[in-house]
Amino acid sequence: MSVLNTRVAVCLMIGALALSLGCAPEQSDRPKTYPVTGTVTYNGEPVADANLNFQLVGGSSFALAKTDASGKYALMTFEAGDGAIPGEYKVTISKFEAAAATGTENEEEYAPPEEGAEPPPSKSLLPDKYRNPETSGFTATVTEAGPNTFDFELTD
Q1: Which class would CATH give 3-24+31-106+118-154?
Q2: Distance CA 49, CA 64 (A)
Q3: Is the Cβ–Cβ distance between 90 and 148 less than 8 Å?
């Protein structure tokens, strides 16, 4: 899957989540969620602004999070920090750096993109294997009893 396709998929998932939040039934009709937290590190260093996606194995439910400056995250399914429903999840982690529109970061050399031109691809700041649930190697089992703390150590 190309970087652009991955970004589009992530945007669509976030959009679907946002729509479902606005149209969600009363909270009592929702499945019960349990807090899920943890830390993401890459080569021993905390990863800020990484995107986590927990996809329920055999189901369509998912939970999302973004790490803070110290690499810590708290999952959300319906609202910020509510966690995830119990079950076994495959986990993906990604972080991208947007490329400058002109291919340069020098403000003086900026030129607007040509009309109809494809935007430059985003650069992945983590190894590609962590973006794919089949190759990330990360799983998590969320339980009612907890604690549901999952730390992920990424390496090259």
Answers
A1: mainly beta
A2: 12
A3: no
Model pTM greater than 0.85?
Answer: no
Whose structure tokens read 């989540």? 17
What is the identity of the amino acid at 45?
A: E
Q: State how far the Cα of 143 lies from the Cα of 156, in Å rounded to an integer.
A: 30
Q: How far apart are CA 100 and CA 105, in angstroms?
A: 6
The phi, psi pair for 55, rounded to 5°, reads: -105, 120
Q: Which residues contact 20 (CB under 8 A, 6 or more apart)?
A: 78
Max alpha carbon distance in the chain (Å)? 57
Average pLDDT, the chain: 85
d(CA 113, CA 102): 7
Segments making up each domain of the chain, as ranges: 3-24+31-106+118-154
Look at strands 62-66 and 72-74 and give their pairing.
Answer: unpaired
Residue 22 has pLDDT above 80, yes or no: no
Instruction: Convert the pLDDT of each residue in 25-79 to its tens digit.
Output: 455 789 999 999 999 999 999 999 999 999 999 988 999 999 999 999 999 999 9
By C-alpha distance, which of 45, 103, 101, 94 is closest to 69? Answer: 45
